[in-house]
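Hi everyone,

Forwarding the result from last night's run.
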Amino acid sequence: MKAIVARDFAPLDRLEYADWPEPEASGHMVVIEADAIGVNYPDGLLVQGLYQMKPPVPFVPGMEVAGTVTAVGDAVTTVKVGDRVASVSSHGAYAEKVAAHEDTVMRLPDGMSDADACALLCGFGTSHHALKQRGKLVAGETLCVLGAAGATGLAAVQIGKAMGARVIAVASSEEKRRIALDAGADLVLGYDNLKETLKEATGGKGVDVGYDPVGGEAFDALARAMGWGGRLLVIGFASGTIPKFPVNLALVKGFSVVGVFWGAFTARDPAAYAANMRELVGWYLDGKVKPVIEGEYRLADAPAVLARVMNRGAAGKLILKPERHVT
Protein backbone atom coordinates (compact mmCIF):
# COMPACT_ATOMS: atom_id res chain seq x y z
CA MET A 1 0.00 0.00 0.00
CA LYS A 2 0.97 3.66 -0.26
CA ALA A 3 1.71 5.88 2.72
CA ILE A 4 3.50 9.09 3.68
CA VAL A 5 6.79 8.03 5.24
CA ALA A 6 9.19 9.95 7.48
CA ARG A 7 12.57 8.26 7.08
CA ASP A 8 14.05 10.46 9.79
CA PHE A 9 13.15 13.60 11.72
CA ALA A 10 13.53 16.24 9.05
CA PRO A 11 11.79 19.16 7.25
CA LEU A 12 8.39 18.49 5.72
CA ASP A 13 9.71 18.38 2.16
CA ARG A 14 11.68 15.25 3.09
CA LEU A 15 8.48 13.25 3.57
CA GLU A 16 8.02 10.51 0.96
CA TYR A 17 4.93 9.08 -0.73
CA ALA A 18 6.11 5.49 -0.80
CA ASP A 19 5.27 1.81 -0.42
CA TRP A 20 4.69 0.70 3.16
CA PRO A 21 3.77 -2.72 4.61
CA GLU A 22 0.04 -3.36 4.91
CA PRO A 23 -1.17 -3.66 8.52
CA GLU A 24 -2.56 -6.92 9.87
CA ALA A 25 -5.30 -7.54 12.42
CA SER A 26 -4.55 -9.66 15.49
CA GLY A 27 -5.68 -9.60 19.08
CA HIS A 28 -7.50 -6.34 19.76
CA MET A 29 -6.30 -4.67 16.55
CA VAL A 30 -8.59 -3.45 13.77
CA VAL A 31 -7.59 -2.65 10.18
CA ILE A 32 -9.31 0.40 8.67
CA GLU A 33 -9.31 1.18 4.95
CA ALA A 34 -8.97 4.96 4.93
CA ASP A 35 -11.64 7.14 3.32
CA ALA A 36 -10.50 10.39 4.97
CA ILE A 37 -7.37 11.37 6.89
CA GLY A 38 -7.18 14.46 9.09
CA VAL A 39 -4.26 16.90 8.97
CA ASN A 40 -3.19 18.45 12.27
CA TYR A 41 -0.53 20.88 13.44
CA PRO A 42 1.10 18.30 15.75
CA ASP A 43 1.69 16.06 12.70
CA GLY A 44 4.15 18.65 11.39
CA LEU A 45 5.89 18.93 14.74
CA LEU A 46 6.19 15.15 14.97
CA VAL A 47 7.91 14.67 11.60
CA GLN A 48 10.42 17.40 12.44
CA GLY A 49 11.22 15.90 15.85
CA LEU A 50 9.67 18.87 17.67
CA TYR A 51 6.77 17.12 19.40
CA GLN A 52 6.56 15.82 22.99
CA MET A 53 7.05 12.23 21.81
CA LYS A 54 9.27 10.73 19.13
CA PRO A 55 8.33 7.42 17.48
CA PRO A 56 11.05 5.12 16.12
CA VAL A 57 12.03 5.99 12.55
CA PRO A 58 10.98 5.36 9.89
CA PHE A 59 7.30 5.98 10.64
CA VAL A 60 4.04 7.12 9.10
CA PRO A 61 2.66 10.37 10.60
CA GLY A 62 -1.00 11.25 11.05
CA MET A 63 -3.40 11.11 13.99
CA GLU A 64 -6.90 10.77 12.49
CA VAL A 65 -8.49 8.33 10.07
CA ALA A 66 -12.06 7.52 9.11
CA GLY A 67 -13.10 4.68 6.87
CA THR A 68 -14.30 1.10 6.73
CA VAL A 69 -13.20 -1.89 8.83
CA THR A 70 -11.63 -4.55 6.59
CA ALA A 71 -10.26 -6.93 9.22
CA VAL A 72 -10.45 -7.50 12.97
CA GLY A 73 -8.34 -9.46 15.42
CA ASP A 74 -9.72 -12.49 17.20
CA ALA A 75 -10.17 -10.58 20.46
CA VAL A 76 -12.11 -7.63 18.97
CA THR A 77 -15.69 -7.34 20.26
CA THR A 78 -16.74 -3.74 19.58
CA VAL A 79 -16.66 -3.47 15.77
CA LYS A 80 -16.93 -5.83 12.79
CA VAL A 81 -15.86 -5.95 9.16
CA GLY A 82 -17.85 -3.46 7.10
CA ASP A 83 -18.46 -0.95 9.92
CA ARG A 84 -17.81 2.74 9.24
CA VAL A 85 -15.46 3.95 11.94
CA ALA A 86 -12.97 6.62 12.95
CA SER A 87 -9.84 6.30 15.04
CA VAL A 88 -7.22 8.54 16.59
CA SER A 89 -3.63 7.71 17.56
CA SER A 90 -0.25 9.39 17.92
CA HIS A 91 0.82 8.49 14.35
CA GLY A 92 0.23 6.07 11.49
CA ALA A 93 -2.81 7.60 9.76
CA TYR A 94 -1.26 9.01 6.55
CA ALA A 95 -1.76 5.69 4.78
CA GLU A 96 -4.24 3.78 2.64
CA LYS A 97 -4.84 1.34 5.50
CA VAL A 98 -4.36 1.86 9.23
CA ALA A 99 -4.16 -0.55 12.17
CA ALA A 100 -5.79 0.67 15.38
CA HIS A 101 -6.53 -0.80 18.78
CA GLU A 102 -10.27 -1.29 19.20
CA ASP A 103 -10.25 1.00 22.26
CA THR A 104 -9.39 3.91 19.93
CA VAL A 105 -12.03 3.06 17.32
CA MET A 106 -15.43 4.79 17.25
CA ARG A 107 -18.34 3.61 15.12
CA LEU A 108 -19.80 6.44 13.05
CA PRO A 109 -23.48 7.29 13.10
CA ASP A 110 -25.49 7.60 9.92
CA GLY A 111 -25.30 11.12 8.55
CA MET A 112 -21.75 11.86 9.73
CA SER A 113 -19.25 12.25 6.89
CA ASP A 114 -15.76 10.77 7.08
CA ALA A 115 -14.22 14.25 6.91
CA ASP A 116 -16.39 15.54 9.75
CA ALA A 117 -15.52 12.47 11.82
CA CYS A 118 -11.81 13.25 11.47
CA ALA A 119 -12.38 16.85 12.51
CA LEU A 120 -14.32 15.81 15.61
CA LEU A 121 -11.41 13.73 16.90
CA CYS A 122 -8.32 15.88 17.48
CA GLY A 123 -9.50 19.43 16.74
CA PHE A 124 -12.88 19.32 18.42
CA GLY A 125 -11.63 16.82 20.99
CA THR A 126 -8.84 19.16 22.07
CA SER A 127 -11.12 22.19 22.29
CA HIS A 128 -13.85 20.29 24.14
CA HIS A 129 -11.41 18.95 26.74
CA ALA A 130 -9.81 22.38 27.05
CA LEU A 131 -13.07 24.22 27.71
CA LYS A 132 -14.79 21.52 29.75
CA GLN A 133 -12.19 19.83 31.95
CA ARG A 134 -9.41 22.44 31.97
CA GLY A 135 -11.19 25.75 31.56
CA LYS A 136 -14.39 24.73 33.37
CA LEU A 137 -16.31 27.14 31.14
CA VAL A 138 -19.70 28.16 32.54
CA ALA A 139 -22.70 29.47 30.61
CA GLY A 140 -22.71 33.27 30.57
CA GLU A 141 -18.92 33.61 30.80
CA THR A 142 -16.79 35.35 28.17
CA LEU A 143 -14.51 33.13 26.12
CA CYS A 144 -11.74 34.60 23.95
CA VAL A 145 -10.40 32.32 21.21
CA LEU A 146 -7.09 33.16 19.53
CA GLY A 147 -6.33 31.58 16.15
CA ALA A 148 -10.08 31.41 15.72
CA ALA A 149 -10.07 30.41 12.03
CA GLY A 150 -7.87 27.35 12.51
CA ALA A 151 -9.31 23.87 12.97
CA THR A 152 -9.06 23.90 16.77
CA GLY A 153 -10.00 27.59 16.99
CA LEU A 154 -13.20 27.15 15.00
CA ALA A 155 -13.98 24.12 17.16
CA ALA A 156 -13.50 26.24 20.30
CA VAL A 157 -15.83 28.92 18.93
CA GLN A 158 -18.59 26.40 18.24
CA ILE A 159 -18.12 24.47 21.48
CA GLY A 160 -18.05 27.70 23.47
CA LYS A 161 -21.42 28.65 22.01
CA ALA A 162 -22.80 25.15 22.68
CA MET A 163 -21.75 25.59 26.32
CA GLY A 164 -23.53 28.95 26.56
CA ALA A 165 -20.57 31.35 26.53
CA ARG A 166 -20.19 34.74 24.89
CA VAL A 167 -17.44 34.11 22.35
CA ILE A 168 -14.88 36.67 21.16
CA ALA A 169 -12.90 35.32 18.20
CA VAL A 170 -9.49 36.71 17.25
CA ALA A 171 -8.06 36.11 13.77
CA SER A 172 -5.45 37.70 11.54
CA SER A 173 -7.44 38.72 8.44
CA GLU A 174 -10.88 39.94 7.40
CA GLU A 175 -11.54 36.64 5.62
CA LYS A 176 -10.61 34.58 8.67
CA ARG A 177 -12.69 36.82 10.93
CA ARG A 178 -15.67 36.31 8.60
CA ILE A 179 -15.22 32.55 8.87
CA ALA A 180 -15.13 32.77 12.68
CA LEU A 181 -18.25 34.95 12.66
CA ASP A 182 -20.03 32.46 10.43
CA ALA A 183 -19.06 29.73 12.91
CA GLY A 184 -21.02 31.51 15.63
CA ALA A 185 -18.68 34.01 17.29
CA ASP A 186 -20.45 36.93 18.95
CA LEU A 187 -17.62 39.36 18.19
CA VAL A 188 -14.51 39.16 16.01
CA LEU A 189 -11.27 41.08 16.53
CA GLY A 190 -7.82 41.36 14.97
CA TYR A 191 -4.53 41.14 16.83
CA ASP A 192 -3.73 44.88 16.71
CA ASN A 193 -4.04 46.52 20.14
CA LEU A 194 -5.59 43.29 21.41
CA LYS A 195 -5.25 44.10 25.10
CA GLU A 196 -7.18 47.37 24.66
CA THR A 197 -9.85 45.94 22.33
CA LEU A 198 -10.51 43.05 24.71
CA LYS A 199 -10.79 45.45 27.64
CA GLU A 200 -13.35 47.47 25.69
CA ALA A 201 -15.20 44.35 24.52
CA THR A 202 -15.58 43.08 28.09
CA GLY A 203 -16.51 46.42 29.61
CA GLY A 204 -13.28 46.43 31.60
CA LYS A 205 -14.13 43.14 33.34
CA GLY A 206 -11.66 41.05 31.37
CA VAL A 207 -11.87 37.60 29.84
CA ASP A 208 -13.13 34.63 31.87
CA VAL A 209 -11.56 31.91 29.72
CA GLY A 210 -8.78 32.50 27.21
CA TYR A 211 -8.02 29.87 24.57
CA ASP A 212 -4.54 30.22 23.05
CA PRO A 213 -3.10 27.92 20.37
CA VAL A 214 -0.89 30.76 19.06
CA GLY A 215 1.59 31.83 21.74
CA GLY A 216 4.03 34.70 21.20
CA GLU A 217 2.82 38.29 21.48
CA ALA A 218 -0.83 37.21 21.26
CA PHE A 219 -0.43 35.26 24.50
CA ASP A 220 1.10 38.31 26.18
CA ALA A 221 -1.83 40.50 25.15
CA LEU A 222 -4.43 37.94 26.24
CA ALA A 223 -2.70 37.43 29.60
CA ARG A 224 -3.03 41.15 30.29
CA ALA A 225 -6.71 41.07 29.33
CA MET A 226 -7.70 38.25 31.69
CA GLY A 227 -10.33 38.90 34.33
CA TRP A 228 -10.32 38.00 38.02
CA GLY A 229 -10.69 34.25 38.50
CA GLY A 230 -10.05 33.65 34.79
CA ARG A 231 -8.47 30.59 33.21
CA LEU A 232 -5.90 31.09 30.44
CA LEU A 233 -5.59 27.85 28.46
CA VAL A 234 -2.24 27.02 26.85
CA ILE A 235 -3.05 24.94 23.75
CA GLY A 236 0.04 25.39 21.57
CA PHE A 237 2.46 27.75 19.88
CA ALA A 238 1.50 28.14 16.21
CA SER A 239 3.37 31.43 16.09
CA GLY A 240 6.59 29.52 16.66
CA THR A 241 7.35 31.46 19.84
CA ILE A 242 6.88 29.99 23.30
CA PRO A 243 6.13 32.98 25.55
CA LYS A 244 7.76 33.65 28.90
CA PHE A 245 4.99 34.34 31.39
CA PRO A 246 5.43 37.06 34.05
CA VAL A 247 3.92 35.21 37.00
CA ASN A 248 3.13 38.44 38.86
CA LEU A 249 0.26 38.90 36.39
CA ALA A 250 -1.42 35.77 37.71
CA LEU A 251 -0.96 37.05 41.26
CA VAL A 252 -2.31 40.58 40.86
CA LYS A 253 -5.09 39.64 38.41
CA GLY A 254 -6.09 36.45 40.24
CA PHE A 255 -6.23 34.15 37.22
CA SER A 256 -4.81 30.72 36.40
CA VAL A 257 -2.63 29.54 33.52
CA VAL A 258 -3.72 26.02 32.62
CA GLY A 259 -1.94 23.59 30.31
CA VAL A 260 -3.94 21.48 27.86
CA PHE A 261 -2.48 18.20 26.53
CA TRP A 262 -5.35 16.32 24.92
CA GLY A 263 -3.27 13.29 23.92
CA ALA A 264 -2.23 12.64 27.52
CA PHE A 265 -5.83 13.18 28.69
CA THR A 266 -7.17 10.49 26.33
CA ALA A 267 -4.62 8.00 27.68
CA ARG A 268 -4.93 8.93 31.36
CA ASP A 269 -8.72 9.19 31.56
CA PRO A 270 -10.27 7.10 28.76
CA ALA A 271 -13.69 7.09 30.45
CA ALA A 272 -13.87 10.90 30.47
CA TYR A 273 -12.58 10.97 26.89
CA ALA A 274 -15.31 8.54 25.80
CA ALA A 275 -17.94 10.67 27.56
CA ASN A 276 -16.59 13.77 25.81
CA MET A 277 -16.85 12.09 22.41
CA ARG A 278 -20.42 11.01 23.11
CA GLU A 279 -21.31 14.59 23.97
CA LEU A 280 -19.58 15.94 20.85
CA VAL A 281 -21.32 13.44 18.58
CA GLY A 282 -24.64 14.35 20.20
CA TRP A 283 -24.01 18.05 19.58
CA TYR A 284 -23.08 17.23 15.98
CA LEU A 285 -26.26 15.26 15.39
CA ASP A 286 -28.28 18.08 17.00
CA GLY A 287 -26.64 20.64 14.72
CA LYS A 288 -24.91 22.52 17.57
CA VAL A 289 -21.44 21.94 16.10
CA LYS A 290 -20.39 21.47 12.48
CA PRO A 291 -16.74 21.18 11.39
CA VAL A 292 -15.58 23.60 8.72
CA ILE A 293 -13.83 21.52 6.04
CA GLU A 294 -11.70 23.84 3.91
CA GLY A 295 -10.69 21.25 1.37
CA GLU A 296 -9.81 17.67 0.48
CA TYR A 297 -6.47 16.75 -1.11
CA ARG A 298 -4.55 13.75 -2.41
CA LEU A 299 -2.65 11.72 0.14
CA ALA A 300 0.42 12.13 -2.06
CA ASP A 301 0.22 15.91 -1.55
CA ALA A 302 0.48 15.60 2.24
CA PRO A 303 3.82 17.46 2.58
CA ALA A 304 2.45 20.61 0.88
CA VAL A 305 -0.89 20.39 2.70
CA LEU A 306 0.84 19.98 6.05
CA ALA A 307 3.09 22.95 5.28
CA ARG A 308 -0.02 25.12 4.82
CA VAL A 309 -1.25 24.09 8.26
CA MET A 310 2.15 24.74 9.85
CA ASN A 311 2.33 28.19 8.23
CA ARG A 312 -1.15 29.12 9.49
CA GLY A 313 -2.46 29.30 5.93
CA ALA A 314 -5.53 27.13 6.48
CA ALA A 315 -8.98 28.19 7.62
CA GLY A 316 -10.79 25.14 8.92
CA LYS A 317 -9.94 21.47 8.57
CA LEU A 318 -7.83 19.99 5.76
CA ILE A 319 -8.44 16.37 4.73
CA LEU A 320 -6.29 13.90 2.80
CA LYS A 321 -7.87 11.27 0.54
CA PRO A 322 -6.27 8.07 -0.76
CA GLU A 323 -5.93 7.96 -4.53
CA ARG A 324 -8.93 5.67 -5.03
CA HIS A 325 -11.21 8.41 -3.62
CA VAL A 326 -9.81 11.26 -5.74
CA THR A 327 -11.78 12.15 -8.88
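The first strand starts at residue 2 and ends at 5.

Cheers,
N.
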